[in-house]
């Protein structure tokens, strides 16, 4: 069990026990999986006081969903891999994650705290279709009645619907699906490995129909490409129609590692916006506060209009949204996607 703030070292992950596989099927073409046996699986979040969770489980590193803006890109550089194409195609798989988690959940010093998954990279990315680590992880959490949450863009989560339902009978389970916009052309270029936004909303619809509370993290709202009033309205309306319990807007942030990759993409696909982005993100990784507040207010107003509850701390943990959708208009500072 990891009780400090250290990440896995490259030496630990890429030692002699690593098995690297390239699978020659259309689904996995161009992707290399590095199968490792992790030494620990419960990770304590650095600076957890700013997060709504303290512990995470991450069975994968790198993500074939390949979102251009992904903030986790930076973490691939710790493995001596690049934060661009390598992040999308060199996927580390912790093949012993389920067994390790089951063992760590029984440790005497483990207090049964909430565990967040999908907050670094997506645990329902395509690799999960091959390695199927999540059923074992969910089974361990269910057996220990350990509260947890999952954030994903992957429709594969529906494979585990029955396990999620069983877990929700014995503990707090929070599911959030990430849908920042509906625009098809934008999706194809900026989130090229993900299921379409409409298919993600089908996940919300299905989970809700089976009695599993599901919120939507409306992330990222992309300045000048996905933030027009009619775009925000269409997205919130679709989220409401899918039956989401809550909607949490989050404006694009561009940390080092993601910033360079995103700006290269922007220059290729929307060169006329490069100067505007340089000005908007001149102060660092985040859009200006006034902009974040504006987007948050707009989304909350639309959410109220369409009858979907706004974000509030704890909502992702399966706590019912407030009856009155009159939440604060301040920017949401979560760092997840
Ligand atoms: S934003 Fe999420 S789904 Fe997209 S590449 Fe990053 S971890 Fe994967």
Automatic annotation (TrEMBL):
Residue ranges annotated as transmembrane are none
Signal peptide annotation: none
Domain called Radical SAM core: residue spans? 49-297
Region annotated Disordered sits at 314-337
Record lineage: Bacteria, Bacillati, Actinomycetota, Actinomycetes, Kitasatosporales
- Which PANTHER family does the entry link to? SLR0285 PROTEIN
* Low complexity biased stretches: 318-331
Which is an annotated GO molecular function term of this record?
A: metal ion binding
Which species is this UniProt entry from?
Streptomyces gilvosporeus
CDD domains, sorted: Radical_SAM
Alphabetized UniProt keyword annotations: Iron, Iron-sulfur, Metal-binding
InterPro entries assigned to the protein according to its UniProt record, in alphabetical order: MJ0683-like, rSAM, rSAM_sf
What name does the UniProt record give this protein? Answer: Radical SAM protein
Q: Which NCBIfam families match?
A: rSAM_Rv2578c
């Amino acid at each position: 069990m990891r009780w400090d703030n250290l990440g896995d070292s490259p030496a630990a992950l890429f030692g002699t026990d690593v098995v690297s596989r390239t699978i020659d099927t259309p689904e996995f073409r161009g992707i290399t999986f590095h199968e490792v046996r992790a030494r620990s699986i419960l990770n304590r979040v650095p600076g957890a006081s700013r997060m709504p969770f303290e512990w995470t489980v991450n069975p994968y590193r790198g993500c074939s969903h390949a979102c251009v803006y992904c903030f986790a890109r930076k973490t691939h550089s710790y493995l001596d891999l690049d934060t661009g194409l390598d992040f999308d195609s060199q996927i580390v798989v912790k093949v012993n994650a389920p067994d390790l988690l089951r063992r760590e959940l029984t440790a005497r010093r483990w207090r049964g705290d909430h565990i967040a998954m999908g907050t670094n990279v997506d645990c329902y990315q395509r690799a999960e279709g091959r390695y199927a680590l999540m059923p074992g992880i969910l089974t361990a959490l269910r057996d220990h009645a350990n509260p947890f949450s999952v954030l994903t863009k992957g429709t594969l989560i529906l494979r585990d619907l029955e396990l999620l339902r069983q877990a929700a009978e014995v503990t707090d389970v929070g599911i959030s699906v990430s849908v920042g916009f509906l625009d098809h052309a934008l999706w194809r270029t900026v989130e090229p490995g993900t299921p379409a936004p409409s298919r993600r909303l089908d996940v919300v619809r299905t989970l809700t129909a089976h009695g599993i509370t599901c919120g939507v993290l409306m992330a990222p709202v992309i300045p000048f490409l996905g933030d027009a009033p009619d775009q925000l309205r269409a997205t919130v309306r679709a989220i409401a129609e899918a039956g989401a319990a809550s909607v949490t807007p989050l404006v694009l942030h561009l940390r080092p590692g993601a910033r360079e990759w995103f700006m290269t993409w922007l220059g290729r696909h929307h060169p006329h916006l490069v100067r505007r982005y340089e000005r908007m993100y001149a102060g660092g990784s985040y859009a200006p506060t006034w902009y974040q507040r504006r987007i948050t207010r707009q989304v909350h107003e639309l959410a109220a209009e369409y009858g979907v509850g706004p974000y509030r701390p704890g909502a992702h943990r399966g706590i019912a949204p407030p009856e009155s959708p009159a939440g604060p208009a301040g920017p949401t500072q979560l760092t997840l996607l």
